[in-house]
C-alpha cells in the first residue's frame, strides 16, 4: 500500500505542480494575470528543483520520473491556457504554426499510450532544454510581450525533442525513464529491443 511517507522530497516538488494546477486555473478564471504569472514561475521553478534534488540525493525512481512528467505536462498545459487567455492576439496571429509544431506531440502521446499505457518519461537532455525554453518563452510573454526569436527557438526545439521521443518509443520495447537521448540509448543495447 502506498502512503505519504513513501514519497521523497523530490516527489513533493512534483506534487506541488499537480496540486497548484487548480489554483492557477482559478487565477485564470478571474483573469489575474500578474498573480497567475508569478505562481506559474514558482511551478516552473519546482520543475528544476525536483530533478536536481532527485539526482543529488540519489533518490531517482521510475515513479518519481512519472510524477515529474505529469507535473510538467499539467504546468505546460496551464501555461498555454494562460497564453490563450492573456495573449489571444498573438495566438490568433500564429495559430497555424503552433498547430503544425504541436501535431507531432499528439502523435508522440498516442504512440506512448498505445505502446506503454502511459506517457513517456525519458527526460532527455533535449527535452530538458526544450522545457526550459518553453517555460522562459511563456513567462516572458506573460511578464512582458512576445519575443519572436524565442518563439521560433521554442518551436524548433519542441519539434526536435518530439522527434527524439518518437524515436525512443520505437527503440524501447518496455517503458523506460531517464534516458539522456538517442545517442545514449544506442550505447545501452541491453535496454533496446
Could you describe the 3D structure shown?
This protein is mainly α. It has a single domain (7-191), classed as Four Helix Bundle (Hemerythrin (Met), subunit A) (Up-down Bundle), CATH 1.20.120. 77% of the residues lie in helices and 0% in strands.
SSE inventory with pairings:
Blueprint (H helix, E strand, L loop, with lengths): L8 H21 L3 H24 L5 H25 L1 H29 L8 H19 L4 H24 L10 H6 L6
Helix pairs in contact: 1-2, 1-3, 2-3, 2-5, 3-5, 4-6, 5-6
Briefly summarize what is shown:
The protein is mainly α and 193 residues long. Helix content is 77%, strand content 0%.
Number of domains: 1
Strand content: under 5%
Shape: globular
> What's the N-to-C terminus distance?
32 Å
Radius of gyration: 17 Å
Q: Please provide the ordered H/E string of secondary-structure elements.
A: HHHHHHH
Helix content: over 70%
CATH architecture tag: Up-down Bundle
Mean pLDDT value: 90
Query: What's the helix count?
Result: 7
- Main sheet, how many strands, which sense, barrel? none
CATH fold topology:
Four Helix Bundle (Hemerythrin (Met), subunit A)
CATH class: Mainly Alpha
Strand count? 0
Look at the helices and sheets and give the structural class. mainly alpha
Stretches with pLDDT under 50, minimum 5 residues? none
Amino acid at each position: 500500500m502506498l502512503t505519504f511517507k513513501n514519497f521523497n522530497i523530490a516527489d513533493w516538488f512534483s506534487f506541488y505542480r499537480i496540486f497548484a494546477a487548480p489554483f492557477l486555473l482559478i487565477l485564470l478564471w478571474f483573469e489575474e494575470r500578474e498573480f497567475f504569472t508569478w505562481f506559474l514561475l514558482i511551478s516552473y521553478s519546482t520543475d528544476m528543483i525536483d530533478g536536481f534534488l532527485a539526482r543529488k540525493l540519489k533518490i531517482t525512481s521510475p515513479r518519481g520520473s512519472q510524477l515529474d512528467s505529469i507535473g510538467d505536462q499539467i504546468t505546460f498545459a496551464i501555461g498555454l491556457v494562460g497564453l490563450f487567455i492573456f495573449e489571444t492576439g498573438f495566438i490568433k496571429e500564429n495559430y497555424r504554426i503552433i498547430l503544425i509544431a504541436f501535431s507531432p506531440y499528439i502523435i508522440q502521446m498516442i504512440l506512448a499510450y498505445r505502446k506503454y499505457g502511459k506517457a513517456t518519461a525519458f527526460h532527455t537532455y533535449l527535452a530538458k532544454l526544450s522545457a526550459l525554453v518553453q517555460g522562459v518563452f511563456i513567462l516572458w510573454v506573460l511578464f512582458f510581450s512576445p519575443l519572436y526569436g524565442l518563439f521560433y527557438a521554442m518551436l524548433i526545439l519542441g519539434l526536435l525533442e518530439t522527434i527524439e521521443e518518437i524515436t525512443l518509443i520505437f527503440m524501447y520495447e518496455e517503458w523506460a525513464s531517464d534516458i539522456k537521448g538517442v545517442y545514449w540509448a544506442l550505447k545501452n543495447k541491453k535496454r533496446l529491443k
